[in-house]
Amino acid sequence: MRGSIVVLALAISPFVARVSMAQEHSHVRRHDSPAVSRDRDDDNRGRDDAKKCEDRRRGNPSENGLEHRADPRSKGNKDCAAPAPAPAPDPAPAPAPSGHTSFSGFVFYDLDLNGVMGPDENGLSGWTVQISGPMTQTAVTDGNGQYTFSGLTAGSYTICVLAPAGWNQVFPTSGPACATGIGYSQDAPALAGDVLFDGVDFGFVSAHW
């Protein structure tokens, strides 16, 4: 009996060896397919979500139909985000300064030649004074020799006296040149309120004095 088993084993061994060799030299090859891109699926899903949230135009509805038409973004379970709020309007610009400037002074007979109108010195009435700059005005001195320019906008101005013949100017001694002497350069500031500059005086003496 033992001899028969040995003979059978010897007969089967070449067959097992051939099967084993056939398995080692198999023609089955492995092909790995590329993984499906999750990003691409997400992009497609995002485009679909965006389309379902679009406010589609359907023809030309009447005013009543347009007013009562449901917003497609609020229907079902679309989970659409609310539209972005409109940007806030820009703040209104600050108002420009609206104040005005006045200049005032005396034209006087400067007896002591010091440029200051003293109690014993008289104003020269009826003389013409001019101011030029962003605005131009002309004033005539009153009975006390006083003049005033008012309602002036901001900017740089020149004030001059048009002295009649026979008079020599004593004061001011420096400043912008005028047709008959020397004047003042004055700045009107840009302010919200009004402002007055006085003491813009002119002293003269008679050429025959």
- Helix-strand makeup class: alpha+beta
- CATH class assignment of the domain at 102-206: Mainly Beta
Write down the Rg. 52 Å
Ends: how far apart? 172 Å
The helix fraction, in percent, is: 10-25%
Please tell me the overall pLDDT: 77
Going by CATH, what is the homologous superfamily of the domain at 102-206?
Answer: Immunoglobulins
Q: In total, how many beta strands? A: 11
In DSSP terms (H or I, runs of 4 or more residues), the helix count works out at 3
**What percentage of the residues does DSSP assign to strands (E)?**
25-35%
Unreliable sequence segments: 5-12, 15-33
Question: What's the structural blueprint in terms of helices and strands?
Answer:
Blueprint: H1 2-24, H2 38-52, H3 63-68, E1 101-109, E2 128-132, E3 137-140, E4 146-152, E5 155-162, E6 167-171, E7 177-178, E8 181-182, E9 184-188, E10 195-197, E11 202-206
Summarize the structure.
With 209 residues, this protein is of the alpha+beta class. Helix content is 21%, strand content 26%. Strands 1, 4, 6, 10 and 11 form a 5-stranded mixed sheet that branches.
Would you write up a description of this structure?
The chain is an alpha+beta fold and 209 residues long. The protein has helices at 2-24, 38-52, 63-68, and strands spanning 101-109, 128-132, 137-140, 146-152, 155-162, 167-171, 177-178, 181-182, 184-188, 195-197, 202-206. Strands 1, 4, 6, 10 and 11 form a 5-stranded mixed beta sheet that branches. A 4-stranded antiparallel beta sheet has the order 3-2-5-9, with no helix packed on it. The radius of gyration is 52 Å and the shape is rod-shaped. Residues 5-12 and 15-33 have low confidence and may be disordered.
